[in-house]
Amino acid sequence: MIEGILIGLATAVTPFNLMIVVLGCVIGTLIGMLPGLGPMSIIAIMIPIAIGIGDPTSALILLSGVYYGAIFGGSTSSILLNAPGVAGTVATSFDGYPLARKGQAGKALTIAAIASFAGGTIGAVLLMIFAPALSSVALLFHSAEYFALMVVGLSAIAAFAGTGQVAKALMMTVLGLMLGTVGEGALSNTPRFTFGMMELQSGFSFITLAMAMFALPEALFLVMNPGRAATGDSGKISGLRISRSEARSIAPVIGRQSIQGFFIGVLPGAGATIASFLGYAVERNIAKGAEQAEFGKGSIKGIAAPEAANNAACTGSFVPLLTLGIPGSGTTAILLGALLALNVTPGPRLMIDEPDVFWAVIMSMYIGNLVLLVLNLPLIPYIAKILTIPRTFLIPFILFFTLMGSYLGQNNSTELLILVGFGIVATILRFADYPLAPLLIGFILGVMLENNFARAMQLYRGFDFIVERPMTLGLLVLAALLVILPSFRSYRARKRAEGVADGD
Amino acid sequence: MALDRWIALAFITLCCVYGYAAFFTMDDQLPPILQRNPVWPSTFPKILTVAGLVVGFIILFSSKPAANETKKDGAIDLTRLGDYHVGQALGLIVLMLGYALLLRPLGFLGATVGFLFVGSLLLGERRFHIMIPVAVIAAGSIWYLVQEVLGIFLRPWPGMFM
C-alpha cells in the first residue's frame, strides 16, 4: 500500500495535475452553486474537456475535483438561499438556512467547509484501506458473478428509490437497458434496433443521454417555474469564527458521520443524498434535550452531520467504481463512461494493470479536499455573488453547454436532435415523478451486463450457470429480495393504513 | 388516468414494438454459424421485453399510493400547468432544434451568438447593450477554447466562407 501511495503521490503532485485539481475544484464550486446544475450535469459538461486532456489520470483527477467542488458549492447555495443546487445538500439547508437568517451565514459556511473537508479526508483514508481488500475479493468473480452482481446493483438502485417508486425505478432501468441494446450487439457485430439509420449504428452516445436526462429537464423546469431557483441578493456574511466549545461539540458528529457516510456511499444505489439524510436523522436522534430541539432551527450539528456524510459518501462511491467497475450513483456512472472513453476499464484489474491511475486518484482526493478548504474559507463572502447572475442569461448558457457537450463528443448535429428529443421525453418523465438516474445507470451497465451474460451463457452452454455457481445464484436471489421486500413492506403498510385485516 | 400510467402505457407499447423486433425479425438475419451459439444477439432483448412488460403492467394496474404526499418545494404541479411559463420552455426547445439544424450552415460563431441572444430575449431580457456583447464574447471565447486549446475542430463561419 505504501508503494501505491508513493506512486500516487508522484503522479498527483506534478505541476500540471496540481493545477488541474485546483481548476476542477474551482469550476465545481462555482457551477455547483448554480441551482439546477448538480454534480452529474457538471461532470457531464466537463467530460469533453477531460477527454480532450487525453491522459486518463489527469482527466479523472479533474472530474473528481469537479465532483467535490460541486458538492461543496451545492451546500453554499443551500445555506445562503435555501436553494440546494444538489440533491445531496438538501439536508444541509434544514439547519444552514435558519442559521444564515440569524446572520450567522459565515459560521454556517465555515462549518460546512470544515465538515466537508473532514468527511472527504476520512473517506479517502477508508477508501485506501478498503479498496484493495474489495478488489482482491472482486478477482474471484467470473463473468457469471459479474452478471449477477450487476443485476444486484441495478435492483439496489431501484430498491433505494423510496416507497412507491420501486416499480418506476425498475421501469426506468429496463428502459435504460433497452436503449443500451441499440447499435451493434454483443459478441456478433450485427446492428440491432437501428431502423436502418447510420447514426444509430454505434448506439446512443452516453454524453447525449446524460445531458438529456439531467441538465436539460432541470433547465426547462427552471424556465417554467422561476421560484425554483430563488436567486436573490446574497445578504451580509459575517462571523466566520467558530468557538472552541462549538468545535468540541461538532467533532464527534463529523467523525461518526464520515464513517457512516462512507459505508453508505459504498453501497451501489445509495450515494450522497441518502447518506446526508440518514446522517442528519441519526444525529438528531442521538442528540439530547435542548440540542435535539435546536435541530431545524439552526443547529451547528445539523450542518456538520449531512456535510461530513455527503462528502464521505462521494468518496465511498468510488469504491465500487474503481474496484468492481460498477457505478453506485448517477455521478459515478458518468465517471465510468468517461473512463471507458479514455480506454481505462475500471474493475479488479485496474489496481494491477494501472496502479498509477488508481493511486493518483486517491491522492488527488486528499489534495482536492485541502484545496477546497484553502480556497473556500477566504472566498466565502465573494462566492455568493455568482448567484446573482440573472436567469435570463443563466438559462441560455446552461442549455448551450448541454448542446455543446453532446456535439463535441460526436461532432455530428444529428446528435443534437437526439439530445432534444430525449430531453423532452426526460422532462415528461420528470413530470410524472419517474427517477431518471436508473435509466442512465441501466444504459451504461447494459452493455457490460449483456457481455458478461453472453460470456457466461457460452461457457455453460445455456442458463446452467445460474444453478452451477452458488455465488451467482445467491446474488440473484439477493437482487430479487432487494426488489420484492420494499414493495411488500409498503404494500402491507398501505393495507394496514386502509384498515384492511392483514391475516396475521 | 394519471400521467404516470399514460407513460407506463407508452412504455408497454414501446416494449411490444421492441419485442416484435427481437422475437420475429432479428433471428432470420442470423448467419447459420451463429445459430449454434447458445446466446444470440436477440436473447438479451427478449429477456428485457418480458421484464419490461411485467414492470409496465405492474405500474399500470397497481393501486395508487396515498396522494397526500407533500409536493417538494419548487416541483411542478401538473394540475396548475397554465401558471408556469410553458411558452418560454417550448420556445427554448424550438430554439435548440433550430440551433441543431443551423449549426452547420451558419457556422459555430453565428449560430451560437444567435442562440444566446434569442435565448435571453425569449426569457424576457431587453437590455441589448449587455446581451449582444455577452453573446459575442462567450461564443468567441468558447470557440477559442475548443478549437485552439483543446484542438477539436469547430467550423467558425458559414460553409461557403471556409
List its salient traits:
heterodimer, A: 504 residues, mainly alpha, two-stranded antiparallel ribbon, 21 helices, 2 strands, 75% helix, B: 162 residues, 2 domains, flat
Structure description:
Chain A is mainly α and 504 residues long. Chain A has one domain. In chain A, 75% of the residues lie in helices and 1% in strands. Chain A has 21 helices and 2 strands. Chain A has a two-stranded antiparallel ribbon. Chain A is globular. Chain A starts with a helix and ends in a 7-residue tail after the last helix. Residues 229-237 of chain A have low confidence and may be disordered. Chain B is mainly α and 162 residues long. Chain B has 2 domains: 3-64; 87-161, no CATH class. Chain B is built from 6 helices and no strands. In chain B, helix 1 (3-25) packs antiparallel against helix 3 (43-61), helix 4 (86-106) packs antiparallel against helix 5 (108-122) and helix 5 (108-122) runs antiparallel to helix 6. The longest helix of chain B has 23 residues, at 3-25. Classes of the chains: A mainly alpha (504), B mainly alpha (162). Chains A and B meet through helix 3, helix 7, helix 8, helix 17 and helix 18 of A and helix 1, helix 3, helix 4, helix 5 and helix 6 of B.
Please describe the topology of this protein:
The complex is a heterodimer of chains A (504) and B (162).
Chain A: H1 2-12, H2 15-32, H3 39-53, H4 56-81, H5 90-138, H6 143-159, H7 166-180, E1 183-184, E2 191-192, H8 206-224, H9 244-266, H10 271-286, H11 289-294, H12 300-316, H13 318-324, H14 330-341, H15 350-353, H16 355-383, H17 391-410, H18 414-431, H19 437-459, H20 465-468, H21 470-497
Antiparallel strand pairs in A: 1-2
Chain B: H1 3-25, H2 32-35, H3 43-61, H4 86-106, H5 108-122, H6 128-149
Helix pairs in contact in B: 1-3, 4-5, 5-6
